[in-house]
Write a structure and sequence with these properties.
Length: about 180
């Protein structure tokens, strides 16, 4: 733009082909990030939750505060749980009991059974999130400025699907452990 202001971020009469391509890559990164987060947390319920979480990430990753206060901690949590989540699914009461009753030797035996690919997928989670964050900020993409995108995203997330059941399951499991 001639005025030096923020670049438009989605197709419009003022958006350049470069900006449209950057937003498409940013969207793909956010969707891949969402898919890996859900996969790592053991929540495999199809494309609806991936799209819902991906839309949420499109907005959250674009904000520096939201990225560092919400997205980065979620990506670290997902990275840490991914090797277990791939094989055992979302957390449950039995998994928490096992975690609390495990010694170092049992932990090492467990970790040796997990394939290297699970650890690589785990490390890829925060890398994808940070890659999306860098792209968004370097390209000066501002997804929240498009009212249609905001309204459509909120409608999809609120009315069609709850993005992650993992936190509900983890809280229920923790309450079950505390109760016994």
């Amino acid at each position: 733009q001639e005025d030096g202001g923020p670049k438009p971020f989605i197709p419009s009469r003022r958006a350049s082909a470069k900006t449209i391509l950057l937003f498409a890559v940013y969207t793909a990164l956010c969707m891949a990030f969402a898919k890996l987060v859900l996969f790592g947390l053991g929540d495999l319920h199809g494309t609806k939750p991936t799209i819902a979480l991906g839309l949420l990430f499109i907005f959250l990753v674009s904000s520096k505060k939201a990225y560092f206060l919400a997205v980065l901690p979620i990506s670290i949590l997902a990275m840490l749980y991914t090797p277990t989540g791939i094989f055992y699914g979302p957390p449950d009461k039995q998994a928490l009991f096992s975690l609390l009753a495990t010694d170092t030797r049992e932990s090492l035996e467990y970790l040796k059974q997990i394939p290297v690919s699970a650890f690589l997928k785990a490390v890829l989670i925060p890398i994808l999130g940070y890659g999306a964050y860098l792209l968004c900020h370097r390209a000066e993409l501002r997804p929240w400025r498009n009212k249609t995108l905001v309204i459509a995203s909120v409608a999809f997330i609120v009315f069609l699907y709850r993005p992650i059941h993992w936190f509900d399951r983890a809280a229920d499991s923790w309450n079950g452990v505390k109760g016994e």
